[in-house]
Amino acid sequence: MALFNRNPDSEKAEMTFIDHLEELRSHIIRSVLAILVMATIIFIYRDWIFDYIILGPVNPDFISYRALCNFSHWAHMGEALCMPPVKVEMQTTTFGGQFLGAISIALVGGVIAAFPYIFWEFWRFVKPALKDTETKNTRFIIFWVSFFFFLGGAFGFFLLGPFTFNFLGGFQLGTKGMLTTRPTFADYVDNLTNIILGCGLAFELPVLSFILTRIGLITPMFLRSTRKYAIVVILLVAAFITPSPDWMSQLIVFIPLFLLYELSIIVSARVYKKEQAKEKEEWS
Question: How many angstroms separate the CA atoms of 120 and 31, rounded?
């Protein structure tokens, strides 16, 4: 069965379904190789990465703790944003726990570091199936997708991670102090991975808004009409992850998430306006 043209320079160049599978396989293989290369580099420098990056959010001297506390004093908020140090003692329960943890760190780090290349391979496979009008405004899509992914990852690592681990590590159930939080190393790495990758994907909301508006699934009017519900959801998320009920500490988490939603509305409005103008030209 003949599918879409994957070589615009050749007349009537068509590929069969098997050909597409073969090309997809080559894109996947190159992406996996890129991940393995980055993972190998990370594994070689695993000790430094573990000490200064992986343990960052639970280190009392982490830059985010100092920056937030200094900002709290500068803004005359007292100790509102100063999080008390939390001593976290992690453990492994198997002989191979540390080795498998190092492998996990290397692979996840390889995926994050190679993300722009992975998306570039994905875009090379998908782009030929799109019309020229559909790819007209996607010139910098690889840059923007990568930018928002790393921006979200940085938000999770430098802000959401410290707040989360500080709160959960210092939470005490009962008044007799008979319970001690001693997480496994694998549990900590899984939580840190979920936070970074989750925030990285969540920050793709403006890009997703761009795509969904282009294909007509959402409109800026819809996003504006659901703003009040989005605010409630964002407030609940901010209240859950902050270490204290103080409104200032919740606000510092709420603001980036709310601005992200507002940016999605602006992106959707610009795309929607262009689509409406294009439709008018076609009908005129």
Answer: 9
* Residue 260 and residue 199 in contact, taking contact as beta carbons nearer than 8 Å: no
- 283 inside domain: no
Is the pTM value of this prediction over 0.85?
A: no
> Strands, DSSP E only, in the chain?
none
* 90 vs 172, more confident: 90
CA–CA gap between residue 146 and residue 132 (Å, rounded): 23
Show the tokens assigned to 196.
Answer: 């970074």
Q: How far apart are the first and last CA of the chain?
A: 38
Residue 160 shares a structural domain with residue 108: yes
d(CA 91, CA 24): 41
Residue 118 lies in a domain: yes
Rounded to an integer, what distance in angstroms lies between the CA atom of residue 34 and that of residue 39?
8
Residue 148 in this model has a pLDDT that exceeds 70? yes
Note the pLDDT of residue 9. 47
Residues 244 and 138 in one domain: no
Is residue 284 domain-resident? Answer: no
Q: What span, in angstroms and rounded, lies between the C-alpha atoms of 186 and 98?
A: 9
| pLDDT value for 247 | 63
More confident residue, 114 or 20: 114
> Residue 72's pLDDT is what?
82
SS3 (DSSP) at 16:
strand
Give the residue ranges of DSSP H helices in 50-184: 63-74, 97-113, 115-126, 141-155, 161-170
Whether the Cβ atoms of residue 192 and residue 161 lie closer than 8 Å to each other:
yes
Same domain, 167 and 259: no
Beta carbons of 270 and 220 less than 8 angstroms apart: no
